[in-house]
Write a structure and sequence with these properties.
This is RNA polymerase subunit sigma. It comes from Actinacidiphila oryziradicis. It is built from 7 helices and 2 strands, in the order ββααααααα. The chain is mainly α. 67% of the residues lie in helices and 3% in strands. Helix 1 runs antiparallel to helix 2 and helix 6 (141-148) crosses helix 7 (152-172).
């Protein structure tokens, strides 16, 4: 996710190659450069990268942020946009993996569990019950059928439709299987 910073008291003069001059005294030139790079190139670069990653917005935002950061660290000179496009394309096709921390992993797991719990609540009581018996309590179809007082064929049918409904409910909440 991009963080847009307020720049209301600053005035930048930006050329085609993101050469920056700033009218406020004492401002950090590095900060000016990264702000200018973001303002001038993040939108078009995000549009381009979204096409490369088949619409995966989170991955595209990650690639754009890393590309802009790389440009800032490199002190790129000359035409900036072609350089940015090349770096972004290499990141996508070079398979630059996201650098996740343990906290990022934990937050992701919690969010997935919350989405799954929310999706389970959206199911009918019959579907929720058969999934609870079979997946959460780890009972076989025959054991779940005996516990619920239903024929095993009915339990299998309900599991099938419950899983289909659960998949749709998860997709509505932005959780995908890929």
């Amino acid at each position: 996710m991009f963080v847009h910073l307020a720049v209301s008291t600053w005035r930048f003069d930006v050329g085609e190659d993101a050469v920056v001059t700033e009218s406020r005294h004492g401002a950090d030139p590095d900060e000016q450069l990264i702000r200018t790079l973001h303002r001038e190139h993040a939108g078009p670069l995000l549009t381009y990268v979204m096409q490369l990653v088949d619409g995966d917005r989170q991955r595209a935002e990650y690639v754009v942020q890393e590309t802009l950061l790389h440009a800032w660290r490199s002190g790129v000179t000359g035409p900036v946009r072609p350089w940015l496009v090349t770096v972004a394309r290499r990141m996508v096709y070079g398979g630059a993996p996201p650098r996740l921390t343990a906290v990022d992993d934990q937050v992701g797991n919690v969010l997935r569990l919350m989405s799954a719990s929310d999706a389970m609540e959206a199911l009918s009581a019959e579907h929720r019950t058969v999934l609870t018996e079979t997946y959460l309590r780890r009972r076989t179809v025959n054991e779940a059928a005996a516990a619920l007082g239903l024929p095993p064929a009915t339990v299998r049918t309900r599991i099938f439709y419950a899983m289909r409904s659960l998949k749709l409910a998860l997709e509505e909440r932005g959780v995908t299987t890929s």
